[in-house]
Amino acid sequence: MECCRAHHIIAIVSLVLILSPVVVHGWGIDGHLTICRIAQSRLSESAAAAVKVLLPASAGDDLGSECSWADRVKFHYHWSSSLHFIDTPDNLCAYQYTRDCKDEYGVQGRCVAGAINNYTSQLLSYGNAASQYNLTEALLFLSHFIGDIHQPLHVGFTSDKGGNTIDVHWYTRKTVLHHVWDDSIIMTSEDRSYNSNVDGLIDAIKKNITGEWADQVQTWEDCSGNQTACPDIYASEGIKAACDWAYKDDYFQSRVPIVNLRLAQGGVRLAATLNRHVPRTV
Ligand SMILES: *[C@@H]1O[C@H](CO)[C@@H](O)[C@H](O)[C@H]1NC(C)=O
Ligand SMILES: *[C@@H]1O[C@H](CO)[C@@H](O)[C@H](O)[C@H]1NC(C)=O
Ligand SMILES: *[C@@H]1O[C@H](CO)[C@@H](O)[C@H](O)[C@H]1NC(C)=O
Ligand SMILES: *[C@@H]1O[C@H](CO)[C@@H](O)[C@H](O)[C@H]1NC(C)=O
Ligand SMILES: [Zn+2]
């Protein structure tokens, strides 16, 4: 089983790399799935009801199954491609909304932090019949972008496009640093520790959210004052983690804990963001 699954993954990854020479942004499918499954298990009753209403029928009430929707529509909704990441100044290891949250043309607010604010405020109109927004899309974008902002290299240096231009070896394969953090670390850790099964990883992270990390969860959820959402906190953590962990030479097993922590925080915060706003309007 393990051998075949591994070959299967390599085959798929190679195919994807061949088919998409362009920059790929975002946790891979399993990273996003993990964050959305964790989040959905933590929703308040009214937020869960809203999510159920907004999800397309094909999702079968599983937010995880639609968590990579935003990556699938990136080429069709071309305007959305700059909403998956933030480029910060090289080697500064710090993020500022007004300086860094813009697209390649310099349009303010067009980055993953701006998008999280945007789609969270659109969801505030849930239950308001006159809403001008497609709230299904708002939910799917928000769920994906809260995931992306927790991938350390989604808030990375400008000149290397968040590690997309840095060639590395992952065991026997050649890839780029960005892809290692999107996919490779998660896939290798699934193969080694969870029988190649993403559910095993999700369960292990959930167990740590209620055990090992229980005393931090409240701080992860915090979004003080009357802010709609708190993406600037997550982005600042992200560029710091990228500098501390990703832009380094010695690798492998030592990176698994930071990936697991970011997946946990993403899941907890997606639930907290939805819980904070959706119930008020139901
Ligand atoms: C906000 O959402 C609308 C509707 O999807 C979209 O057209 C716009 O580009 C978004 N802007 C940002 C910064 O997310
Ligand atoms: C809202 O967006 C979804 C996903 O793109 C689409 O399937 C649906 O038709 C849209 N709804 C409306 C009312 O436009
Ligand atoms: C859960 O926490 C334990 C104890 O710190 C750690 O050894 C383990 O790797 C963690 N698992 C995950 C999935 O984060
Ligand atoms: C939040 O907004 C309410 C009403 O707009 C206001 O009374 C309250 O002081 C605000 N709280 C903070 C912490 O800004
Ligand atoms: Zn993405």
TrEMBL record:
It catalyses: Endonucleolytic cleavage to 5'-phosphomononucleotide and 5'-phosphooligonucleotide end-products. Keywords: Disulfide bond, Endonuclease, Glycoprotein, Hydrolase, Metal-binding, Nuclease, Signal. Its EC number is 3.1.30.1. One of its GO terms (molecular function) is RNA endonuclease activity. Monomer. It is an enzyme of class 3 (hydrolase). It comes from the Eukaryota. The keyword Ligase does not apply. This is Aspergillus nuclease S1. It comes from Camellia sinensis. Residues 1-26 form the signal peptide. GO terms for biological process: DNA catabolic process. InterPro entries: PLipase_C/P1_nuclease_dom_sf (IPR008947), S1/P1nuclease (IPR003154). Belongs to the nuclease type I family. It holds the Pfam family S1-P1_nuclease. The keyword Disulfide bond applies. The lineage of its organism: Eukaryota, Viridiplantae, Streptophyta, Embryophyta, Tracheophyta.
